[in-house]
Amino acid sequence: MLERGVDGVMPFGTMGEGPSFPVVERMAGLEGLRAAGIPAHRLLAATGCAALTDTLALTRHALASGVGRCLVLPPFFWKGLPDDALFRYYADVIEGVGDDRLRVYLYHIPQVSGVAIGAEVLARLAAAYPVQVAGLKDSGGDYAQTARFLAAAPGLSILVGHEPDLPRLMREGGAGSIGGIANLWPEAVAALLKPGVGAGDQKRIRDFLEIVSSHPFLPACKALLAAQTGDPGWLAPRPPLYPLSEPGRRGLLSELGAAGCGFPPP
Asked: Partner of 102 at 20 to 30 A CA spacing, among 79, 204, 224, 230?
């Protein structure tokens, strides 16, 4: 992926099924990347867990591995949390780690986590912890909310997970994307970052997303990785997810080809 143009890699995010992996495996994965020679500045660690103690353990481990940038989910079991509770949770992470090398990126993905992060919470945290709070990844897919994040914290790095929003985000002062599709087709995502991005580039990624999203999304992405790499190991997601059926995999590839956004080889 680095050779194909991405700026960095975030293991155990949503596409990486992070919440389905225990702390010990997530630590081992980050250690494996560092041992393989991946520079720390090219890594961002996903350290958010339902339990604060697990989040602290993963975040401290990331820093010990030289990785200071951490993407932190809100505590995703308890729904309907007031803003004060979310503020206190992130404050507890920052103060519990107690290391000025830490750079926290909040993770807003309410359609999966069930816990929305408001722009007011982001602004409060940025004011209270101007060194440690670095940005937010907005995977909500609602650009009106993205705009509120940009307005509330203009000094932070606001990134999107919904790739079609990238051209507008970049025009309005955003920082880029941490996106799942870059695992599959980084060249198509990189095209959206160019100042002269064309309508064709935007349509290509929209068509691609629409087709992939018409199937169970993560199993579909894993099926595409298996087809791209020739490695059937990618077909197996962690429970409770399950692989696409063989007809589903064939149909997915056929739909992508018919739409003119055939899946490219690595």
From this structure: 79
Q: Residue 186: which residues within 8 A CB-CB, separation 6 or more?
A: 1, 4, 5, 6
Q: What average pLDDT does the chain have?
A: 94
In angstroms, the CA 149 to CA 157 distance is 10
Helix (H) or strand (E) holding 137: strand 133-138
CATH 3.20.20.70 location in the chain: 1-178
Contacts 24+ apart (CB under 8 A), 121-124: 121/83, 121/86, 121/87, 121/90, 122/149, 122/152, 122/153, 122/156, 123/152, 123/153, 124/83, 124/87
> So what's the pLDDT on residue 265?
53
- The single-letter code of the amino acid at 206 is R
**Closest alpha carbon to 161 in 10, 20, 24:** 10
Q: Please state, in angstroms and rounded to a whole number, the distance separating the CA atoms of residues 136 and 156.
A: 8
Query: Which uninterrupted H or E stretch holds 46?
Result: strand 45-46
pTM tops 0.85, yes or no: yes
Cβ 158 vs Cβ 126: under 8 Å? no
Count CB atoms within 10 A of the CB of residue 265: 7
Backbone angles phi, psi at 164, to 5 degrees: -60, -20
Beta bridge partners of 177: 160
Class level of CATH domain 1-178: alpha beta
3-state SS, residue 139 = coil
The band of 195, judged by pLDDT with boundaries at 50, 70 and 90, is confident
Q: Which of 241, 220, 223, 187 is nearest to 5 (CA)?
A: 187
CB 29 within 8 A of CB 11: yes
Lowest model confidence (mean pLDDT) among 123-137, 149-163, 183-197, 228-242: 183-197
